[in-house]
Amino acid sequence: MTRLMFHIARPITLWSLHFIAIYALISAACAPRGLMETDVMRAVATLGTLATGLLMLFWLIQAMRSSRRVSGDAEERPLVIAALWSAGISLMAIFANLWPVATLASCSG
Known about the structure:
This protein has one domain (2-102). It has helices at 2-30, 38-69, 77-97, 99-103. The protein is elongated. The chain is mainly alpha-helical. Helix content is 80%, strand content 0%.
């Protein structure tokens, strides 16, 4: 059971770390001192999203395989389905995190 709880929590944890990283990059690019250029921020955010998305896709595929292996009346079936949904929703949320970066024309209000 503990292993399945880990499989539910790790996609959400990765998404939250990605969320923090994206907004930290935006803050660094739009700070009054301009710690980085907007183009550099976009490149780093895109590469980070791609890497995180690929890892999340791998976890989603693992969860799909696990859901096929577990019988319909097994005790751990609800946790396996929760892990599947957790990975799927977190994958969509990771790509949604990139939206502010894609629509940011400039850092002026």
